[in-house]
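Backbone-to-sequence.
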């Protein structure tokens, strides 16, 4: 302890002197410094000292403009010229007009005649509808299975089908998905089968995670879909890191991360946006602003005009879109992807929607929000029926096709569930593998304890888990 105190008292004055030196250097932007035979300006010196970073055009522009301050009406400050003003005025906390929301289809599924949207082909539109109904049906049946005690937990995406499916439709399989937990539809779009969904929820031996995760924590390397992280917002910086590596490899792809309104209150969201802007990486941030973070309404989450405005604070191009309009989401994500990849820049999308279901099967939302509010969104704002009206008006869909699709999906899902339920569970040994190359001694010890406990109390151990 004494050692640490002594060391600290020695270090602090050096630290202070260092800071003073940096401060005085900052005050004199024209100061020059010698390193070896090279004479460097202050900004160049900082650049020289900083760790190597992948080429970033913005930063270079900034450095070039530092010594070019000839007009005393402006301050030539890193980042661009700043005009002086004699007015003492603060930047308002929000604009009077809220940021508008991009929409293509109205509530009756009719496209706005003024919208400059890109038409989707019949083939894509039919797959979008098919997959939205698949997600809806899957949610209904897995939810019932949880209520019957057959699986331990479930999360639905009810009300958010358009964000799930239309965003996935606008992406390429090469784009890496870094999800939260309410985006199973992206996997539906990418071809994760009903059997794969059911195996994960039942934690059987076909589950890629071998039963070591809660239900709905899907992940699939084959589908370029990172395993679900339900530690809120922790996935957002991961997506930025992945996008940075894609930039270095000059890949024709981007990283796409999803999160909720609640996630934007975590530090990880802010750090991620800032890193993404500064490093200029091809990442799309998709915020599903569904009004609630479990029982916390957005009015208790932030006082800004939602999430879209936060992009500007970090220098991230942003847009607000109607998350219940599949055509608007599709167009938005398609345009965002193009900009992200071609211009190597992050894009923030705030999709306005509503969480129609309870937060999870562990929640009862009637305790904290009016049932009428839920009903209004469920009936008047349903994204699936809005899209259906549009495909019907194009002559692509009928009542018969609808009945056939829903009954076929129900049958396939019930079969998938029965199969997953009957399949063997992973072994006890699997609980201890896949993390360490050589398991540490404490893990071996825990396995021995577990096996001993099972031997001593066999009646407390589920009989369908093989020991080896
Ligand atoms: C770091 C962290 N804090 C708290 C929780 C508990 N928690 C689980 S979901 C959730 C709300 C998230 O809301 P939001 O981000 O809006 O997503 P939504 O569920 O609405 O899709 C919270 C607080 C958690 N999982 N992780
Ligand atoms: Mg939310």
């Amino acid at each position: 302890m004494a050692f640490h105190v002594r060391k600290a008292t020695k270090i602090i004055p050096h630290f202070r002197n260092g800071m003073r030196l940096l401060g005085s250097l900052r005050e004199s932007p024209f100061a020059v410094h010698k390193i070896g035979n090279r004479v460097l300006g202050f900004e160049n010196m900082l650049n020289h000292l900083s760790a190597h970073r992948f080429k970033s055009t913005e930063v270079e522009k900034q450095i070039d403009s530092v010594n070019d301050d000839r007009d005393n009406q402006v301050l030539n400050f890193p980042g661009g010229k700043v005009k002086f003003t004699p007015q003492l005025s603060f930047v308002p906390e929000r604009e009077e007009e809220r940021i508008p929301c991009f929409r293509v289809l109205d509530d009756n599924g009719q496209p706005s005649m003024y919208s400059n949207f890109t038409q989707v082909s019949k083939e894509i539109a039919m797959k979008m509808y098919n997959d939205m109904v698949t997600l809806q049906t899957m949610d209904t049946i897995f939810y019932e299975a949880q209520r019957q005690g057959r699986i331990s937990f479930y999360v639905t995406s009810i009300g958010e089908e358009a964000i799930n499916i239309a965003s996935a439709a606008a992406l390429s399989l090469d784009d890496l998905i870094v999800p939260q937990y309410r985006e199973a539809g992206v996997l539906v779009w990418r071809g994760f089968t009903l059997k794969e969904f059911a195996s994960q929820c039942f934690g059987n031996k076909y589950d890629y995670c071998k039963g070591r995760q809660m239900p709905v924590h899907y992940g699939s390397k084959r589908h370029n879909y990172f395993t679900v992280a339900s530690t809120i917002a922790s996935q957002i910086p991961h997506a930025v890191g992945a996008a940075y590596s894609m930039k270095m490899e000059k890949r024709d792809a981007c990283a796409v991360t999803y999160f909720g309104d609640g996630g934007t209150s975590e530090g990880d969201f802010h750090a991620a946006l800032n890193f993404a802007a500064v490093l200029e990486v091809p990442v799309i941030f998709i915020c599903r602003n569904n009004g609630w973070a479990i029982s916390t309404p957005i009015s208790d989450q932030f006082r800004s005009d939602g999430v879209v405005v936060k992009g500007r604070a970090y220098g991230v191009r942003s847009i607000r879109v109607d998350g219940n309009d599949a055509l608007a989401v599709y167009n938005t994500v398609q345009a965002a992807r193009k900009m992200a990849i071609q211009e190597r820049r992050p894009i923030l999308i705030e999709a306005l929607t509503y969480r129609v279901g309870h937060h999870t099967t562990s929640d009862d939302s009637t305790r904290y929000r009016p049932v009428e509010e839920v009903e209004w969104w469920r009936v008047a704002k349903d994204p699936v029926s809005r899209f259906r009206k549009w495909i019907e008006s194009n002559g692509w869909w009928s009542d018969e096709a609808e009945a056939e699709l829903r009954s076929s999906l129900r049958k396939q899902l019930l079969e998938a569930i029965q199969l997953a339920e009957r399949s063997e569970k992973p072994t006890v040994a699997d609980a201890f593998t896949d993390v360490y190359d050589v398991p540490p001694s404490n893990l071996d010890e825990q396995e021995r304890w577990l096996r001993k406990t099972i031997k001593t109390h066999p009646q407390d151990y589920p009989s369908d888990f093989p020991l080896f």
